[in-house]
Amino acid sequence: xxxxxxxxxxxxxxxxxxxxxxxxxxxxxxxxxxxxxxxxxxxxxxxxxxxxxxxxxxxxxxxxxxxxxxxxxxxxxxxxxxxxxxxxxxxxxxxxxxxxxxxxxxxxxxxxxxxxxxxxxxxxxxxxxxxxxxxxxxxxxxxxxxxxxxxxxxxxxxxxxxxxxxxxxxxxxxxxxxxxxxxxxxxxxxxxxxxxxxxxxxxxxxxxxxxxxxxxxxxxxxxxxxxxxxxxxxxxxxxxxxxxxxxxxxxxxxxxxxxxxxxxxxxxxxxxxxxxxxxxxxxxxxxxxxxxxxxxxxxxxxxxxxxxxxxxxxxxxxxxxxxxxxxxxxxxxxxxxxxxxxxxxxxxxxxxxxxxxxxxxxxxxxxxxxxxxxxxxxxxxxxxxxxxxxxxxxxxxxxxxxxxxxxxxxxxxxxxxxxxxxxxxxxxxxxxxxxxxxxxxxxxxxxxxxxxxxxxxxxxxxxxxxxxxxxxxxxxxxxxxxxxxxxxxxxxxxxxxxxxxxxxxxxxxxxxxxxxxxxxxxxxxxxxxxxxxxxxxxxxxxxxxxxxxxxxxxxxxxxxxxxxxxxxxxxxxxxxxxxxxxxxxxxxxxxxxxxxxxxxxxxxxxxxxxxxxxxxxxxxxxxxxxxxxxxxxxxxxxxxxxxxxxxxxxxxxxxxxxxxxxxxxxxxxxxxxxxxxxxxxxxxxxxxxxxxxxxxxxxxxxxxxxxxxxxxxxxxxxxxxxxxxxxxxxxxxxxxxxxxxxxxxxxxxxxxxxxxxxx
Amino acid sequence: xxxxxxxxxxxxxxxxxxxxxxxxxxxxxxxxxxxxxxxxxxxxxxxxxxxxxxxxxxxxxxxxxxxxxxxxxxxxxxxxxxxxxxxxxxxxxxxxxxxxxxxxxxxxxxxxxxxxxxxxxxxxxxxxxxxxxxxxxxxxxxxxxxxxxxxxxxxxxxxxxxxxxx
Lengths: 759, 166
Prior knowledge:
The structure holds 2 protein chains of 2 kinds. By secondary structure, chain A is α+β, with helices and mostly antiparallel strands. Chain A contains 18 helices and 29 strands. In chain A, the strands form 7 sheets. Chain A has a 7-stranded mixed β-sheet with strand order 3-5-1-12-9-10-11, sandwiched between helices. In chain A, strands 7-15-14-13-8-29 form a 6-stranded mixed β-sheet. Chain A has a 4-stranded mixed β-sheet with strand order 18-26-27-28, sandwiched between helices. Chain A starts with 17 loop residues before the first helix and ends in a 5-residue tail after the last helix. Chain B has helices at residues 23-30, 86-93, 103-116, 122-128, 140-151; strands spanning 2-8, 11-17, 49-52, 55-58, 71-73. A 5-stranded mixed β-sheet of chain B has the order 2-1-5-3-4, sandwiched between helices. The relative contact order of chain B is 0.16. Chains A and B meet through helix 1 and helix 16 of A and helix 2, helix 3, helix 4 and helix 5 of B.
């Protein structure tokens, strides 16, 4: 049996996932068809805030092919509060009051989505509209309450302080203030959310296909909510068409599909459409910050004070984590000796917030990066020099940022930033910029530094199984939404067992195949499951040595495993490989194949680093922004597969450019969302996006044995900060100041008009 | 119900369809060709793109009755005799897909584009792909893949067996 002398780990190996996907053979939830399934469509609230006076379903129920019309008054179990949304959770179906446009009120089950939607059109709901609350700062005054029973619109108010906090600002030589805002964005994975469930009344087992990022969390929620033994709830995430955080939460549709499948003992399927992705899927980013940054005479940061409000939408849930994580990210990679940060997480009549790729990292970095730019502009310093002199230096490691649990540990930020500036050739750019300006062409430069705080809690596990012919099956509860873990984990497993990658099959996201997992989010899977592969492989080899010992007629303690071969210590000439072990096991007619399951736990986060630079050209007549060059210097830690790591960084950066330049959820004063299709909410396209240059400066993470760092969110962290920075730079001579992200063409056009800069 | 004839990936089908059924739904639900994905049903994202009489169309904006008598090619029809097409192989080699949901539409669009313009510039490739949305890759590797396929149209790889075959 040939063994691999060159490790697979670290090589840009094309993915094992792809042959299926490029032939249309991937199975997503919407592709799953149960015999006799009933398809669900929802009637959603058309009001942001209203009392429900009456629901009339009579005509809808008469349509042939409609099997059930479900309201919370008919099925009082559906008045229960959605799990995982504490301390202010919505009922599964709204029944007396609605709090956002899109909130589910009636579920319809029919033979097809066509028929279910016909019925949905015939459901009549009488509303008594209430004033909509759409501004978090106003909502925080509690003049009108969304949920009178909760007593306040403020879900959480927290303070984080280090050093002398706000007192230290008094000692600052220079003080700069700004109010900085971020609009609401929506993740919009290409596959809308979806679930399909089938209940077997005889066994009491519920099978749930679920486009989720965490099968075990979903299993726990479903089992708790409906009083089931978790062992009887099997959640499987098949191919999932993008997640970006928003397929990780608790949603009414999950509760509905599982309840209806169980209660009616009928297979039930719901495939959300794009409108539902805009109306019903959790959103993110919307915050307003009132920031003060103090400096010494020499331009060293003395203190930062920030009071911010997050528009969390109508209920609690994952948004509270985003608000907290924003605070963790405000210092970024900069030394800030004194901090005082207070956050208000506030409810309004909009779709709830929940983590979206970045989840506070972009927000926090937006604050510090924009404030450094603003300070440099106001105090007459160079933006780049100011950032350079305030970066945490290698000699400072481990550097406690002043936020609990955030201690920067590795890399060389000033050097990487310097390399970025050299790559961009700043002097040459400045000359080109000023020449272009003579001809009416506006060029702008933006740079931004960021740390990516990843993992740092919980565990993840893998399970090895020996299969016929020496094939290895590796299962993990972590899920896939396109990251390519099946390939990366196969690379690691193949190296650990000294076998070709083709001999390894990886299956993810199935509670029926592994006992526990946390899931894929927060850039954690390679850090956690990757380390688990190494831990579990050792245990697996130890177990299988016993099989080899039988074959070798030796004591197990005398059997060694080396380079894919089991042999008696000192006698490598008589050896057995994995195939030989499998053949022997099979000939002995064991009921099950040998397995070993193990877990890796860690409460230490990893800290990746990136310096991004962008050069843009702005057409002052149209306010169109064209990206000339986008350069990333990136510390990914130890890289398992550069194709995948770069794919994450580049994909994240482009996604972020959408939220910096085009994407924003807009709401009318009545709380009605105005951007509910891809026509109104514009994702970045191939034509306007640049080729992104990625240069690695990788420093293994000291906090986990394999040195992995997260990469999934790295690309998106600086996007909003860097684009506002670059657009301002293009109009530096006229003092353009931008305090709102995204800088859409419309918003920029208006800003330029106010300054008389449009041609 | 209306009787229609469709030839899909070379196989003739006689179907009874409701006039309002979308071509995408008929391909997916009636013929089981679930490789064609519905990303928006608004004609914007392009995930549902198929070839209809050799022209790329949005199968979410095409009624099945409008396709009566047409020849359709879906993503399932791109590989021939177990051999990936040059475009498919290039997508694989260049890591031009992550979640894979938008990929069928990109493959169909790129296949058609290269048949019309076998040696495009990078800018032309980006322009040609501008009607398809991808949320994962940032497009760069998709552009690389189309470039690669245009440079080496005969390069193919054998499709490997089912990844969860055991």
